[in-house]
Design brief:
Length: 1609
Amino acid sequence: MAAELHPRSGKLIGLSNSNRTARRNQPVQEFNHGLVLSKEPLRDRDVFTVRIDKKVNSWSGSIEIGVTALDPAALDFPSSATGLKGGSWIVSGCSVLRDGRSVLEEYGRDLDQLAEGDRVGIQRSSRGELHLWVNGQDCGAAASGLPPKLWAVVDLYGKCTQVTVVSCEPPPPSAEKETIERDEEVDDEEEEEEEVVVCGVREDAGITALMNVAAMNGMMNGDEVPELSCSHSRPDKFPNNLEPDTVLTEHQLFDVFNNAIVSFYRSEDEGGGEDGGGGGGAADGGSGGGNAGTDTSSRNDRGSNSSGGGAANSDSGTGTTGGGGSGSGDSGNTNSSPASNGGSGQGVISGGMTTNDALLFHEKCGTLIKLSNNNKTAERRRPLDEFNNGVVMTNRPLRHNEMFEIRIDKLVDKWSGSIEIGVTTHNPNNLDYPATMTNLRSGTIMMSGCGILTNGKGTRREYCEFSLDELQEGDHIGLMRKASGALHFYINGIDQGVAAAQTPGVVYGVVDLYGMAVKVTIVHNHNHSDRLRRNNAIMRALSPDVGRPRPALSLTPDPEGPDRLLFHPNCGQKAAIIGDGRTALRPHATDDFNHGVVLSSRPLRSNEVFQVRIDKMVDKWAGSIEIGVTTHNPAYLQLPSTMTNLRSGTWMMTGNGVMHNGTTILDEYGHNLDRLKAGDTVGVVRKEDGSLHFFVNGVAQGPAAWNVPPSVYAVVDLYGQAAQATIMDDMVDLPPLPEDSSEGPTAMSPGSPCSVGGASTTNDLRFHQLHGTNAVITNGGRTALRQNCRSEFNDAIVISNRCLRDGELFEIIIQKMVDRWSGSIEAGVTAIRPEELEFPNTMTDIDYDTWMLSGTAIMQDGNTMRNNYGCDLDSLTTASRIGMMRSASGDLHYYINGVDQGVACSGLPPDVFAVIDLYGQCVQVSITSSSGPLDNSLCTSNITEKSFPIHSPGTHQGPRSAGVAHRLHSKHGKNVVLLGEGCQAVRVGGYAHGIVFSAKELKADELFEVRIDEVDEQWCGSLHIGLTTLSPPELPSCPLSGLSPSLPQLRTKVTWLLCGSEVRRNGVLQRQNYCCSLDRLTVGNRVGVKRCSDDTMHIFIDGEDMGPAATAVAKNVYAVLDLYGRITAVSIVSSSLMEDMESIKAPSLSSDSCSEGEEDSTPIREVEAEPCVLVPTVMAFLENHGKNIQLSNQNLTAARVSSYNQGLLVTAQPLARQQLFQFQIDRLNPSWTSSLSLGVIGHSPDRLNFPSTACCLKRSAWLLQRDSVFHNSLKICENYGPNLDTCPEGTVLGLLVDTNSCLHLYVNGMDQGVAAQDIPSPCYPFIDLYGQCEQVTIVTNNMPAVGGESGEPRCQGDMEKADMVDGIKESVCWTPPPEVNPNKTCEYQALCSRFKDLLTLPDGYFNEDAKYNLCYCESCHKLRGDEAYYKRGEPPRDYALPFGWCRFALRIKPHCEVSNALKKWHIAYHGTSVGALRRTLDHSQLLPGTSSIFSVSPVKAEGPNGYSEPEENSAPGREVPRVRLSPTMRYSGMEIFAPKVQFQDPRSHRCHHAQVGFQVCVRPGSYKVGPQTLGNTEPLDPRFSNSEIEWITKEQGGTLLYGLLIRVE
């Protein structure tokens, strides 16, 4: 058979080398679709062998291999080999699957561990069995009963990216003979194995046995130590003895060593530990605990023993085999296990017992459990419908020191809670299984989450760092009852310590497949997931110093060893240790940016400083060195790709933040490590009090963490740019550690007391040091978070450090939430001092002096006193702000995102503390800069309920101010009833006919908002909302049976609406995925619509602006809603705009009862604004900037001098209100992708630690990046303005904050609208020179504030014709030089140009100057600042720019008449077909009869309409063709005029559809305006009605071709 691959393969496969080499394309972006098959079916005994050529570290999983009966010539290739059905056997990892279902869990070598250069083959034997071959070694039969005709299958999955077929031939005779002999002896061996007697007279310690075996094979007599190949599979049977003359095969030797190491690891805890039974040697009078036959390695589950220390684990007793040990101790090897430092074990067993009673699941189990895989696998049925009744138990009691370990095979992401595991004294034969094991009230110890439950009650809330609820598929969980009675749990092989001290002697293992956990399998090879670590230890065990205790395998430092701090030899995959252990490096630092973790060789002592110097850096990656400590012993740790991925016992300083177990606990701490250079030093120390401190260049950065345990190892992560570091031994230059933590740059730290004494400043509000047990206070007392957020939902109450003053706002922002629990944050006040408060589970449990808002309910002393308050805390999301304030009159007010929600309750005592309960979904909050006292005049005013939004229609007492509540119009759908004076609408029947309108037209920038009151789940669909030009007063009287049943069908007038997540105009889809779908709305959500002054429609959801949904919206519009489907009732929560805009200024409690002597509130506003008024100043860049920035030109020009990041810069001066800060892009480098971003920060930049990119700014930062807006790295708006990545050189960008604290972006002088609100003052502009953008210069000649008297804008009619050339305004605003293409990098324009080239039109038809070619895609026209409509000709006439099209300018003959035409003729558009292009261009005009059949139609010269008089030279009755034109391409570009054609892009080879048309000049008077005659009758363009959208001409010479238009989809 030819050793070739079939030419048909997976879609990402590329074949080469005569179809012998297969490579998966895009290996870093895609992990599957890499299936290849053999060219011909396999012959019996042929081994189809491939070599692994390349692997990547981006994915998990690796090569998979097998056979299939499916013919590759007709195969529909699945994404991976495990998807093959119809007779397919695949080896994946160490499992065998048939048609995608596992048939053998533990088989042969783990394919995921194979390296580049390893060979793997597949064979069908003559007996119809499937065999796997790894590096020339047969792994045994994997399956039997295979059909005769099979093709070999190789899946280049995950890490494996390239293989080469090396052979397809029978194996060597020697190997095959060995295989055949082994097969023939299977029956005899099985019978023999089942009668193995565990006898105590041939036992030895694990390591001693290992040494003896090595000696027997000539390894300890000076011979060269052979390399142990990892390719050998585990044997089905181990030898019963190790006599001196026994010579084991390398295959068997590997497993003996393997098991000895496993035994040694386990015995470390027992020997001399709490069990005291370590397997001593002959010197101790007992025999060592060998482990040659342990069940931990036998694939046939043999080797268990019921003695206290027998063959099962041999931790404190005797083993099955020995080289010279005896029960009496009179003869034996003098070498003992390094862990054997106490007593002898009892090794003699009365009588023999067989070893085939492996741990399995008991046949009797929970009602929903299905057992499989010989009762090793348990699965819960109907996992999406039921979450409990999934209890399974072991088939026999656990023995002392016996590991019971399971692997999680399947989870579902639906329920809360997950797997629980433990032990019980109940016999499964007699037990009436409960729904969940924690319901059992006797004899049961369970681990649930991260705690221990005894008889269903919590006995240890935080048993370990891990939570079972956070484990993933593939993770391992184990437990062991030690001989001393101590119960230990293991997670992924890591001992979590003692969970219970006195466990009964007879216990069964029990697993509860609860909640997310669906399927588990018992693992008999307990260290299967840690093979790499164990193999490394085995290789160390074979070294010449095998008989001596090794510090690398000891949990405590060797007292006789060197005391010098060095790097441990066990390091990351891409790291290496040199220089006698003092230097660590990533040898290939430019190829990989991670896998560079190194640890110290011993734990740090208290107050011992570990410091390294950065020797070498590479200028390629983002990020740099990270340093910290960990409790993990490097000898046992399977090192992660980066240390911040470790989820237990680890503290790391990364960038300028501190992370604990992968979670950020300090955002801004110390010097930014990403800015360090070669020669800089970093250090870490754990003080005696448990505090952790970091050093940068010898400078202490202050405390970073508290309560760090002793015996931690130092960690250095050579990440990103950091390529090499060396340990610095000389610490004499380091200053002494500060005794007072306040000397560091961060005075407050996690768990440290917050300074509250003598606080008199306005920004001294912090969280108190006393808090709930699950709460953690960080960031100097400004941030609170709930630890173990996925396993704990309460006990996280935090309280302010002092009582609130009258009129003082305490505001927090939600920074992190989890989608797991029900309920969310609760907020309120209490009169109980923190020192006197016994923190309960939740604050609503307090029954005195406490007022809380929970959801929409106001609660006093735990009792609900008011429902349906104006806001719902459960509906808040990340980045929402919540504030509380007690007024001088004793009223409690809440603020949501700065908006006062009105009086919540009254009669509060004067001294109250703010309280936040981090409950349920809410995990982390921080105090905002808005916290503090408001204006004193507000504190003493008489508060009334002039709140915004309005909460309960009809309940307000007293007259309203100028902010009158919105109302609904009396004209509405027939199923709607209005209540509460028109403030509430209820649909009383059916699912449709629920349209309602606002009572009045909306003013510019006026928000019309409603709250969802009722939902009926029996219907599908949801609320529709938008704007319409339909005037409700013109409708007939109610009931409006003639009104459309739903809003998408309302087409009598132009209507813009949001339906789900789609924006529609008169029912026609305009935009998809605009925002989160309205179908998700529920009770309490708020939805609003606003027509902005820039003629755009914005939708608001829960107060958040979703950005512009539609453009060119008419001015006279009404808000319109459709109570459709699920939504049955809404109420208005918005007010009409007041003249002084007071109602939208937040936060404010200004009085409604001003004295008559006060004319208005202007003086108050001036007093408030006075401290923030900044005089416009000359702006320059600050000297403090990103490390790759170089300033010049008096700090007006900034350039990035290397790499693609670290280019952040900020202005030295704050930005005054109404001051426009502008800069020009000077230089772009097309070698990079992406480009600059810009924004403002709300704090002083003097001490700012600049991150690598602006998106890492997470405190008081507003960022404009691409076409999105971010606040503190969270996206708050999409599709805003042009895409900044497409800005060419010469573009001028600007930032402005208006008097309403709104941020605006300016592009070439054109305002792009409001990007963000509530910008603090002062604020500082910043720019990130990222990617392509390498240099910018501040524009200094545009100093006047925007909106001044000198800047009066000219209206369109005032412009000179010379100011306008086809939409490019030359004198209205600054634009790039005309010779510069506004967007040289526009991919859409390039695509249209490639289509034009495919048309093979002569170049002579087109203008040679490319500057007249204009792209009208969204980014390009926004960059130019184009208006949607312009005027042209005499008399002037409107035309629309062809948005969405690309124009290629045509050559025009330069004679006077044509020159006149450009100025005096009108502009129109003509859609045509591709086939008519050439004939039209040949005549240089649209000739009747030569245009497309879609655009020309014959009409009688004599007729009642249009041209009623015959032409002068035409005969009566002659048909004169007419040409249809239009002032808008929305009509001319319809498919009926411009049919679509399909083409393949020659560059990307993707198929697209294209349309063509012409932009033409039309002689005034040569055409007549008429109604639409073709296509649908819906309104097409808001500027042109359908009655005048079509121009008809029949005059030859009346049109002049101006440009070819192309649109590509």
